[in-house]
């Protein structure tokens, strides 16, 4: 395996399966009374978050602590970044403090890639701009495998704001590696221009794709990244691309509904769908800690 | 490297040349004499089977009897195998104990990878399975089962792992082969076979469930 985890494309099928299998064994740790393993004792993991996050930061922190690593949390607010310190200088400061791994979230696509050239430790991409979010894709794949029993040959439909979604890109890459058939569904304005080069199908018609889906993954409409009008109104978007109870009924009976969170209830997903037993939203959060433990163990646990 | 040839082989080499009066002084010049001697060097020896199929089961049957004897009927015993090959061994012991006295002994597996002290010497490795019997290990007599007892470091890791999983009444250790060279104050309560080995040798256990045959093989380390 690579020393860093920057893109889901860095993972071979064997790497990805090793992470999923490792997570499968580590899942039991979260259920026992002593939720801790001594494996990363004496290692330091820095959470470097330049962008807001609840789930991912807490999840990485919990994962590192369950493996007994020391965790330093760094958020751009209240740090020297607000005084204008550059990413490189921040990185060199962390390096000097002896970080064995840096978990980075940044608004700029490619920031983790740059960082990997400046620090000696492992760099884990926790979301960079509209580029990638590989651990999210891994936890989604883990959730699918646990619920469906396997990923190979499964039909996964990813719906919504693909253009601004790092989750979508990482999922397409990883699910393709693992042998799933991925279909993206979105209004043409919310698809990247290069989408025809991605290893997946593209459709504009959600209702046509739903009956042929084993998994439907709804993406959040990312208003904070939208600098133009991508659709006429929220109401119209929701009518055409939102998952409501009617559409849920059109899915095959054992199909899953996934959402990486945070959800815009009533926009891309109706509240009753989000809370239905078919939805894996809460499970995804639990699995997030497990999959990040697996990644941290595999990157930091052995000889470096 | 001829200089690395073990001293045990030198007398034979010297005897082979005993006709020559120069043999003794030349024998000291090992780099010269054994480099031209194809039969010398431990690499030439084929692996030796120490236990064959039926021997392994006989040893396990005896251990099963010993467990029954020492624990007075194996009432609260839990057998935990250490992956990979400790797991089928624990299952076989449970089967024998049931055969002999009808006592159903729960068995499972205990992976110790995350507790090892040599993790940083090698790339991160895949994890084995940990499957505890449904009634857990609290207040039970846990018998750890492993194929080869060597440095004792695996057992130390297993004791740490157990500590995080519950509080057994007592912990005992069963090993199919005890090959010596302990690096920690650890000993086995039940041993299938004591096997004196050199540190450079490797003991390999093959089991039907994993490898398709039963055997314990002693492999002389090949020298580079």
Mean pLDDT metric of chain A:
94
Structural class of chain B: alpha/beta
Q: Write out the strand line-up for the largest beta sheet of chain B, numbering strands in chain order.
A: 3-2-4-5-6
The best one-word shape of chain B is: globular
What fraction of the residues of chain A are assigned to beta strands by DSSP? 5-15%
CATH topology of the largest domain in chain A: Rossmann fold
CATH topology of the largest domain in chain B: Rossmann fold
> How does the major sheet of chain A shape up?
5 strands, parallel
Largest sheet features of chain B: 5 strands, parallel
Order of strands, widest sheet of chain A: 7-6-5-8-9
Would you kindly provide a written description of the structure presented here, covering whatever features stand out?
The complex is a heterodimer of chains A (304) and B (224). With 304 residues, chain A is α/β, with parallel strands linked by helices. Chain A folds into two domains: 8-132 and 285-300, Rossmann fold, CATH 3.40.50.1370; 134-281, Rossmann fold (3-Layer(aba) Sandwich). Chain A is 37% helix and 15% strand. In chain A, the strands form two sheets. A five-stranded parallel sheet of chain A has the order 7-6-5-8-9, covered by helices on one side. In chain A, strands 2-1-3-4 form a four-stranded parallel sheet, sandwiched between helices. Chain B has 224 residues and is of the alpha/beta class. Helix content of chain B is 30%, strand content 21%. Chain B has helices spanning 10-16, 23-28, 30-33, 53-70, 86-101, 153-165, 208-211, and strands spanning 48-52, 77-81, 107-109, 141-149, 170-178, 190-194, 202-206, 215-219. In chain B, strand 4, helix 6 (153-165) and strand 5 (170-178) form a beta-alpha-beta unit. The longest helix of chain B is centred in the first third of the chain and has 18 residues, at 53-70. The termini of chain B are close together. The interface between A and B is medium-sized, with 21 and 18 residues.
């Amino acid at each position: 395996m690579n020393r860093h985890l920057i893109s889901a494309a860095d993972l071979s099928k064997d790497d990805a399966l090793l992470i999923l299998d490792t997570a499968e064994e580590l899942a039991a740790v979260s259920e026992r009374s002593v939720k801790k393993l001594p494996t990363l004792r004496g290692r330091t993991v820095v959470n470097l978050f330049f962008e807001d996050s609840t789930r991912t930061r807490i999840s990485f922190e919990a994962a590192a602590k369950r493996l007994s690593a020391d965790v330093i949390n760094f958020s751009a607010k209240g740090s020297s970044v607000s005084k204008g310190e550059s990413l490189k200088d921040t990185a060199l400061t962390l390096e000097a403090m002896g970080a064995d791994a840096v978990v980075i979230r940044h608004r700029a696509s490619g920031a983790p890639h740059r960082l990997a050239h400046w620090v000696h430790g492992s760099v884990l991409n926790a979301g960079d701009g509209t580029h990638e979010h590989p651990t999210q894709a891994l936890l989604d794949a883990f959730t699918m495998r646990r619920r469906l029993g396997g990923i190979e040959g499964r039909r996964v439909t990813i719906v919504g704001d693909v253009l601004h979604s790092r989750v979508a890109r990482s999922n397409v890459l990883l699910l393709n590696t693992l042998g799933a058939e991925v279909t993206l569904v979105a209004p043409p304005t919310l698809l990247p221009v290069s989408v025809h080069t991605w290893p997946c199908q593209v459709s504009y018609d959600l209702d046509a794709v739903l009956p042929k889906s084993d998994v439907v993954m709804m993406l959040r409409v990312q208003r904070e990244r939208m600098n133009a009008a991508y659709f006429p109104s929220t109401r119209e978007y929701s009518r055409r691309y939102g998952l409501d109870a009617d559409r849920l009924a059109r899915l095959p009976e054992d199909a899953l509904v996934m959402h990486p969170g945070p959800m815009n209830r009533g926009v891309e997903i109706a509240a009753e769908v989000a809370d239905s037993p078919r939805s894996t939203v809460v499970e995804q959060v639990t699995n997030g800690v497990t999959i990040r433990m697996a990644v941290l163990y595999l990157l930091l646990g052995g000889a470096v | 490297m001829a200089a690395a040839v073990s001293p045990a082989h030198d007398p034979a080499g010297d005897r082979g040349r005993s006709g020559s009066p120069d043999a003794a002084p030349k024998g000291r010049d090992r780099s010269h004499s054994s480099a031209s001697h194809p039969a010398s060097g431990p690499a030439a020896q084929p692996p030796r089977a120490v236990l064959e199929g039926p021997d392994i089961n006989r040893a396990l049957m005896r251990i099963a009897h010993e467990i029954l004897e020492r624990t007075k009927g194996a009432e609260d015993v839990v057998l935990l195998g250490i992956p990979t090959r400790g797991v089928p061994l624990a299952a076989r012991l449970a089967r024998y104990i049931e055969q002999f006295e009808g006592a159903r002994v729960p068995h499972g597996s205990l992976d110790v990878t995350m507790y090892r002290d040599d993790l940083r010497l090698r790339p991160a490795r895949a994890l084995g399975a940990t499957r505890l019997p449904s009634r857990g290990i609290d207040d039970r007599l846990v018998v750890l089962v492993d194929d080869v007892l060597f440095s004792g470091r695996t057992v130390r890791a297993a004791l740490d792992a157990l500590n995080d999983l519950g509080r057994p009444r007592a912990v005992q250790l069963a090993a199919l082969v005890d090959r010596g060279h302990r690096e920690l104050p650890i000993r086995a309560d039940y041993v299938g076979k004591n096997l004196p080995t050199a540190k450079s040798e490797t003991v390999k256990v093959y089991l039907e469930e994993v490898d398709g045959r039963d055997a314990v093989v002693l492999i002389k380390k090949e020298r580079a």
